[in-house]
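Message: I would value a second opinion on how I read folds in token form. Give me a protein, with the fold worked out from its sequence. Write it directly below this note and I will take it from there.
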Amino acid sequence: MAADGPDPVLDDVAALVAGGDSVVLVHGGGPQINAALAERGIVEPRVAGLRVTGAAARDVVEAVLCGSVNKALVRALAGRGVRAVGISGQDGGLVTSPRIGAVEGVDLGFVGDAPVVDPVLLKALLGAGFVPVVAPLARDPASGAALNVNADTVAGAIAGALAADAYIVVTNVDGVRLDVDDPNSVLPSVTLREARAYLADGTFSGGMIPKARAAVAAVEAGAKRALIGSGLQRALAGTATAVVP
């Protein structure tokens, strides 16, 4: 998503809200975080696709996600006539998460997983006609520390907690491909059982793994369906992979 200038995802959010739908937007900010870390000379490796996040890196992640990216999205939505409110998972006890700890023998630092969502704040904002824009930071219940959590993972947990009609994962392809190099191999739909099998046997690979896992978790937790595709309106119109019970 681009906070400034044309952006089809934000345009879709505005169109859905204008049509009477309730929307919660969960965002990441990988490129902006990478740039901010580089400016400060902070180098953190990745392990199993996850960024090792020490205290200094965590503070940068928090500043970028909760500050510049979140508020730029709120401004961009306001420019489209949307009453948006920027929050993070730490606000109102929205998202708590334990630290992952060590993966492949490497301590990931301030990184969380398996988030637990208390949707009270979101329901209050949605009920008052606002669109919550959520930065994927969580509070560690054991230490009280801020944790960086994968945005797809947080979004799926939120969709499940709200029993959403649809959890939509926006990516750069029209759906989940059986063959990552073949755009004609997009699956129109998969059941939870099929999705779990594809995750287990390696059919889903690379960056699609956290998205598929989040989709499965969302439906398992109560979302009616999950859609993985290249846009909100396109996904709702059927141009996406649907994960269904």
